[in-house]
Amino acid sequence: MDQSGDLLTSLLPLVALFAIFYFLIIRPQQKQAKNHREMVANLKKGDKIVTNGGLIVEVSKVEDDYFVVKSNDGSEMKLVKEFVAKLLED
Fold first, then answer.
1. pLDDT tens for residues 8-57?
2. How far is CA 46 from the centre of its chain?
3. Which of 9, 57, 61, 74 has its CA 20 to 30 A from that of 23?
4. Residue 62: CB partners within 8 Å, gap ≥ 6?
């Protein structure tokens, strides 16, 4: 009986450390990734976005794996959905 109590006492700090790590690092990161996925899924024609490279472009067309975007000078290019950093609010 004494040996199982010692085992529980020695594992308790490890479990507490994992719980703290989960709630301070893993869970907020998962929530942020979910919000980003939802934002990318809800983008539509006419939305202005910022790419990971820092370009500000406007969505011209939504495809399955990429967006056709238009830059300020009117040129169009394809942008893979994973490279959308954020939606630019007006």
1. 888 999 999 999 999 999 999 999 999 999 999 999 999 999 999 999 99
2. 22
3. 9
4. 43, 44, 45
3-state secondary structure the chain: CHHHHHHHHHHHHHHHHHHHHHHHHHHHHHHHHHHHHHHHHCCCCCCEEEECCCCEEEEEEECCCEEEEECCCCCEEEEEHHHEEEECCC
Same domain? For 29 and 56 the reply is no
Structural domain harbouring 7 = 1-42
Computed over its alpha carbons, how large is the radius of gyration of the chain? 22
> Within this chain, do residues 30 and 51 fall inside the same structural domain, yes or no?
no
The answer on 36 and 11 residing in a single domain is yes
Which band of pLDDT confidence, cut at 50, 70 and 90, is reported for residue 7? confident
Other CB atoms within 10 Å distance of the CB of residue 14: 9
